[in-house]
Design brief:
- The chain is mainly beta and about 350 residues long.
- It is about 10% helix and about 30% strand.
- The chain has 5 helices and 25 strands.
- The strands form 6 sheets. Strands 13, 14, 15, 16, 17 and 20 form a 6-stranded antiparallel sheet that branches. A 5-stranded mixed sheet has the order 18-19-25-24-23, with no helix packed on it. A 4-stranded antiparallel sheet has the order 1-2-3-4, with no helix packed on it.
- The two termini are about 40 Å apart.
- About 40% of the residues are buried.
């Protein structure tokens, strides 16, 4: 057992491309382990944000190895920064020098901007390499793809939750704006999957042009192009999957709810998550609900401000983990108390 090193809950694990070492990350530290080490209670510390006193201002959110190069790794944090390091740089140096750094700049890179919440909206909750040259990050509102050869700006942005922009004050009051969402990448098909609210996942294929130049129902376009090469456009397809109990079929492993047809549209996703100002109803989402117990309390009490808000059931059914198979043809995810698996068409 690899033990007695982390002082906080482990948030992220990543195996190196050569399968000899792995990374472990908690909120403040990153450690590098060797699988065949004789002393499994000792690891090399790659990052440490523990303050000498008081509460930390920045939290670590993800650590991952490059899928092809065993020495390259990334670390992301709640300050909107993702850095790529090289283990060939002395790992025991007091302050690590990262070769590549990406930083989300709210006014330039975010599709939703709020003067009071920009720092929170820029926090990276998950990050991963994609292929040889790219990194994908997940913040509260969107997915962003970065090119390690030109890290000054994202080369593509997929706003998977920008419809929540009118509800940001409500989300802040409820602390929901601090929720983290998982990210999974398949390097073979260059497909990205991420979790949303209301038992829903979004699957993004940056770089793939839609057949016929149009997007079918349930598929959404992102933002394309690079400032340095505006003539080179990047296309994407975004598919939304919903944990619809009505379409549940027996799974061959008997371990989860396998959904035969979970495709849904963006409009339906929004209806299951957001309540507009004219509505007083906060009933559980019908088609995508994965929980059967009602949530205590209502959001539309008389002493609260009246602004767009989120359905209580949508938050209860937030996706907590996501995985994608090699080749990208199957997606699995968990909510609070359910596990689902989708076969993509």
């Amino acid at each position: 057992a690899f033990a007695n090193v982390h002082q906080y809950n482990i948030q992220s694990l990543s195996l190196s491309a050569d399968s000899e070492t792995f990374l472990s990350l908690d909120d403040l530290q990153v450690f590098w382990w060797h699988l065949e080490a004789q002393d499994t209670t000792k690891a090399t510390k790659l990052a440490d944000l523990k303050p000498e006193s008081g509460q930390p201002d920045i939290l670590l959110t993800a650590a991952a190895f490059h899928p092809q190069h065993g020495s390259l790794f990334l670390v992301s944090n709640s300050n909107g920064v993702c850095e790529v390091g090289d283990l060939r740089d002395p790992p025991c140096r007091r302050k690590r020098e990262y070769k590549i750094s990406f930083q989300i700049k709210p006014d330039l890179h975010n599709s939703a901007v709020h003067s009071d919440h920009n720092d929170i909206l820029s926090a990276i909750s998950a990050a991963s390499f994609m292929g040889k040259d790219f990194v994908v990050t997940r913040d509260y509102i969107s997915l962003k793809m970065w090119d390690m050869r030109n890290p000054t700006h994202p080369v593509a942005t997929c706003p998977v939750m920008d419809y929540l922009a009118p509800t940001l004050d409500f989300l802040y009051d409820k602390d929901y704006i601090f929720d983290r969402f998982p990210l999974a990448v398949d390097d073979q098909s260059l497909t990205v999957a991420t979790g949303l609210y209301a038992g829903t996942v979004a699957v993004w294929r940056p770089g793939r042009e839609p057949a016929g130049g149009s997007h079918p129902r349930g598929v959404r376009s992102g933002t394309y192009g690079t400032p340095s090469h505006p003539q080179q456009l990047l296309f994407d397809e975004v598919e939304f999957f919903c944990a619809n109990e009505a379409s549940k079929v027996p799974d061959e492993y008997g371990a989860c709810n396998a959904v035969a047809n979970g495709y849904t549209s963006l409009d339906d996703v929004v209806k299951r998550i957001v309540i507009d100002t004219a509505s007083d109803d906060d009933e559980p989402a019908t088609e995508c609900s994965t929980s059967h117990e009602p949530l205590d309390g209502e959001y539309n009490t008389s002493d609260e401000p009246v602004y767009p808000r989120m359905r209580s059931q949508a938050h209860a059914d937030r996706v907590t983990n996501v995985a994608i198979s090699q080749g990208g043809d199957r997606v699995a995810f968990t909510t609070n108390d359910h596990l689902f698996s989708f076969a993509r068409r």
